[in-house]
Amino acid sequence: MHITRRTLLAGLGAVTLPVALAGCGFVPQDTGGQADADTLTFTTWGTDAELAGFRTAIRGFQRAYPGRKVALNAVPYEQMFTNIDAQLQAGNPPDVFRVPYYSFGAYAGRGQLLDLSRSLNAGVGDRFTATAWAAVQSDGRPFGVPHHTDTSAILVNTDLMEQAGVTELPRSVDEAWTWDELGDVADRLRGALPDDVYPFAYNWQGNGVTRWLSLLFQAGGAFLDADQKTPAIDSAAGRRAVSFAQRFFEERWVPANDSIKSATYASDTWYRQRVAMVWSGAFQIPDAAQTLDFPWTATYAPRQERGGSDFGGNALVATAQTTKPDLAASFLDFITRRPQMQDFCERASLLPTRRDLVDGGLRFRVRPELTRTFVDQASVIQPEDVAQVASPDMASIITVLQNGLEDAFVGGAGARETVATLQRGIAAATGGRA
Predict the structure, then answer these.
(1) In whole angstroms, what is the distance from residue 285 CA to residue 293 CA?
(2) What whole-number distance in Å separates Cα of residue 98 and Cα of residue 104?
(3) Cα(206)–Cα(117) distance, integer angstroms
(4) Planar angle of CA 60, 62, 64, nearest 5 degrees
């Protein structure tokens, strides 16, 4: 049994590490010698590589600003947000925490995050890509900083591909397979592989249901209008995206247990060599390189009307209840400077949000030749895609998507019925008009 990211995270214990902290975005003011006023609490989860990146940055903070400290608390992912929510309700949250972009909007919408527009220098936003900066905005103001991103390309078992005579893969994001071309490849694999080995698996299990939205974007669709309330999924593009995903199951391109609510993650199926391809984020690369005993590489997710991909990754946010807003802003500035972001992303095989790293200069420490595939894959994500996922109601929308798409993929609901159901559910979640 290979160690997945999820099982790895579950095994991490709580760790507290004091470190020094400061940054040029905002230099903390003198606190009169009060120890607590000089210590920032920071809660996160992380893989071994991610936590090593945080700790390396923390040592840099201590060298730069002796006396400014951060208490780093690392917890298992499964406990992370149960703990954060309970602490917010009790009035004793950490000063800073890590949050997925798809959860950011809910915290910002409830007024639980610190408005950084007055704390960060005005030019800090210019360091980030437009897409990344859009992901941490609420009502036109920043309530966090985009620490890193990730997106799903396709990991490929080259041995299984060669069994079907597929030896050429797209060499650029502009040459990515269209849906028809992906279907042709899947048909070739289905005909050549053993009955219990499948062409691919899609990583939309659990909260990963947001990755189905990549197909919706590829079809030229949206699930919310610009107001983040009015549902837009009941459309020709929505029906095409549902119908195409239904073919995965109807034509046995994916295993039957690759559904939205499956307890089996797509990556687990690929590790066991039961599929030739898997949609995956770059974060899987270090584990795969250490674990797999078959040759593999990466290629691009498909395109249709346009390229489309998921905006994964995490922001760093300060809580509105923090008594150290200046120190929190200093931390958020420091950790997103180029040296710290480059080190973190290269260690953990994650994608940067800084313009000067996206445009070059980044190389994963493991399988560096795959860096460009994931960086280019992320380039097809549009700011308007991210703005939808940053909806304050995204947690409720995720439940709507999980239920509606599961019914479409394994419950027999048709595409037209499915998007109509999703439209009504999203309207109920956002208070918009269906």
Answers:
(1) 13
(2) 9
(3) 34
(4) 70
CA angle 97, 98, 99 (to 5 degrees): 120
Furthest-apart CA atoms within the chain: distance in Å: 73
From the options 3.30.1490.20, 1.10.3720.10, 3.40.190.10, 3.30.930.10, give the CATH code of 5-150+312-361.
3.40.190.10
Pairing relationship of beta strands 15-20 and 145-150 according to DSSP bridges: unpaired
Q: CB neighbours of 209 closer than 8 A, spacing ≥ 6?
A: 260, 398, 401, 402, 405
Task: Label the pairing between strands 145-150 and 275-281.
Answer: unpaired
Sorted by where each begins, the domain ranges of the chain are 5-150+312-361, 152-310+389-430
In whole angstroms, give the CA distance from residue 309 to residue 429.
Answer: 24
Instruction: Kindly report the number of other CB atoms within 10 A of residue 268's CB atom.
Output: 20
Least confident range from 21-35, 90-104, 131-145, 218-232: namely: 21-35
Gyration radius of the chain's alpha carbons: 22
* Superfamily of segment(s) 152-310+389-430: Periplasmic binding protein-like II (3.40.190.10)
Query: Could you tell me which of 59, 147, 107 has the C-alpha nearest to residue 335?
Result: 147
Quote the CA–CA distance of 344 and 41 in Å, as a whole number. Answer: 20
Position of tokens 């109509």? 420
Average the pLDDT over each of 90-99, 105-114, 309-318, 382-391 and give the range with the smallest value.
Answer: 382-391
